[in-house]
Amino acid sequence: MTPGVRPLVAGNWKMNGLSANLSEVKAMREAVDAGKAGEAELAVCPPATLLAQAAWALRGGKLSLGAQDCHAKESGAYTGDIAAPMLKDAGAAYVIVGHSERRQYHSETDEQVKAKAEAALKAGLTAIVCVGETRAEREAGKAIEVVSRQIRGSLPAAGAFETVVVAYEPVWAIGTGLTPTAADVAEVHAVIRKLLGELYGAAGAKLRILYGGSVKPANAKELLGLDNVDGALVGGASLKAVDFLAIAATYA
Ligand code: 13P
User: Fold this and answer.
1) 77 Cα to the center of ligand 1, angstroms
2) How many domains would you assign to the chain?
3) CATH code: domain of residue 116
4) CA-CA distance, 151 to 117, in Å (whole number)?
């Protein structure tokens, strides 16, 4: 935790969810609006196909909506892509950029992630910029070097960077049930905090740094209680309201 910073617990549904699953979003919303979801801000990032319906289900409430990716351009001939202003128009407040699955399966570079983050800010969205080392990089003792390079290369240099969120997601911890030790998480988050200060000055001290990778109700308390861990980016455990809310309850 960082004093004076409201944590964020964001759910990344990845390529999961049909209209029927909006019942989970509605259950999350009910808990948040009833004041039963703790002190953190909560956001859910369903697939793009559900954004408009989710926005309708969340209208007037306190559960935030996010998307999972955006294009760096505002519009144009990019078949199949979605621009940041379109996400804003559909009701999103957040967009995840540079998730390791996009870096891995779509060969996204730091430069492209940075352009997407800047496009997100320009559209009035908060960018959740993801970084994290692979297992081979961790085993080679290069985790800090890799994450530092990603932070320097992927974070926006222009726009309202006061709203930027960083998510540290070790690739080998995603969907595996494995998590780094508390000491390893704290070490990486401290390095990210220092780099945010170098990039953004005093504002860097207040930006939220989320941890992601196999966050579950059972391990949330330990991970989210660490210095400079200002919330979580949750994959699998965000698909069910009961699990997601149990993680959020860490901040009760
Ligand atoms: P899991 O919580 O399923 O490990 O996924 C983490 C993640 O990639 C969130 O963006």
Assistant:
1) 31
2) 1
3) 3.20.20.70
4) 12
